[in-house]
Design brief:
This protein is mostly helical. It has six helices and no strands. α1 runs antiparallel to α3 and α2 packs antiparallel against α4. The longest helix has 22 residues. The radius of gyration is 16 Å and the shape is globular. It starts with a helix and ends in an 8-residue tail after the last helix.
Length: about 190
């Protein structure tokens, strides 16, 4: 089975996995566009997202306060495995029903949040480590509506920074516009 969420995650995942696989150990302390995070911190955060959102798919509570270091031996391969599990977790149509008991939002929004983190943090890590990154166009198009919906609350909570100007282009929605709405400068650094 598949859902729109799992299809979009499946389109996004390999691109972010490729970026993660391309990160060298000597790049772990580089800054990222995600304020307050160096590459190591952002990788650990993204691991937490990928693992915790598997649990959120099946409506189990998760613990965000524990901050384990996921970057032990074989972390690149483990990230790929956990990302595959994330896609599989959201493939059951029942994952999109109801409200998340742990997050208090519709399950469909929770799945979109996993997609947003996987995509935007994929870009964060790529530009921080000087790698190419091009998300799937259907993912970017889908995320624009979610970002508009979440932005006011996300900005109040400090998850998104204030939006930054993005170049006017005729083919919006595009990645630069999406990044700008999350408070990232598309031309970072």
């Amino acid at each position: 089975m598949a859902t729109q969420t799992s299809d979009l995650l499946a389109a996004a995942a390999p691109r972010t996995v490729d970026v993660v696989r391309g990160i060298a150990d000597d790049q772990l302390d580089l800054p990222t566009p995600c304020r307050d995070y160096v590459v190591r911190d952002l990788l650990n955060h993204l691991f937490e997202v990928v693992v915790n959102f598997q649990e959120l798919a099946v409506k189990r509570p998760v613990e965000w306060s524990a901050k384990p270091d996921h970057l032990a031996d074989g972390w690149r391969d483990r990230f790929a495995v956990e990302t595959d599990r994330l896609v599989a977790a959201w493939s059951d149509p029942s994952t999109l029903e109801g409200v998340s008991p742990g997050m208090g939002m519709p399950q469909e929004v929770i799945g979109g949040m996993a997609l947003l983190d996987l995509t935007v943090h994929g870009w964060d890590l790529a530009v921080a480590t000087d790698q190419a990154y091009q998300p799937a166009p259907e993912v970017v198009a889908d995320l624009h509506g979610l970002v508009e919906r979440l932005a006011p609350t996300a900005r109040k909570m400090g998850v998104f920074a204030d939006p930054v100007p993005s170049p006017d282009t005729p083919d919006l929605p595009n990645l630069d516009h999406l990044l700008a709405q999350t408070g990232r400068t598309p031309t970072w650094p």
